[in-house]
Amino acid sequence: MPRLLLMVRCRACGEEFDTGIRIDARNFTRATLAANYHTCPACGQRGTYHKTDYLAREEPALARRDAPGSPA
């Protein structure tokens, strides 16, 4: 199952940034993800984000630790 990386768009400056959260698609569907705090690397603004704020992107296979041939 593909892993997703979760991004958000900063409410202060509009910059899209990676939250560092990785989750598989099934668990993302089940997750609540309410009131999570993230700090924008572009402007430093700290904000609260909810599930509807997340932009789920499929993590590239080369970036995954569980990719074939990658170290455990």
Structure, explained:
By secondary structure, the protein is mainly β. The protein has one helix spanning 25-30; strands at residues 3-9, 16-24, 36-39, 46-49, 55-58. A three-stranded antiparallel β-sheet has the order 2-1-5. A two-stranded antiparallel sheet has the order 3-4. Strand 1 and strand 2 (16-24) form a beta hairpin. The two termini are 18 Å apart. The relative contact order is 0.29.
Q: Tally of extended strands?
A: 5
- Helix count from the secondary structure assignment: 1
Taking all Cα atoms into account, the compactness measure Rg is 13 Å
Shape: globular
- Proportion of residues in helical segments: under 10%
Q: Roughly what is the average pLDDT, rounded to an integer?
A: 88
Q: In terms of per-residue confidence, which ranges show pLDDT below 50 for 5 or more consecutive residues?
A: none
Question: What is the helix/strand order?
Answer: EEHEEE
> What is the distance, rounded to the nearest whole angstrom, between the alpha carbons of the first and last residues?
18 Å
Q: What proportion strand?
A: 35-45%
Class by helix and strand content? mainly beta
Main beta-sheet strand count, sense and barrel state: 3 strands, antiparallel
Strand order of the largest sheet: 2-1-5
Spell out the key features of this protein.
single chain, 72 residues, mainly beta, 3-stranded antiparallel β-sheet, two-stranded antiparallel ribbon, 5 strands, 39% strand
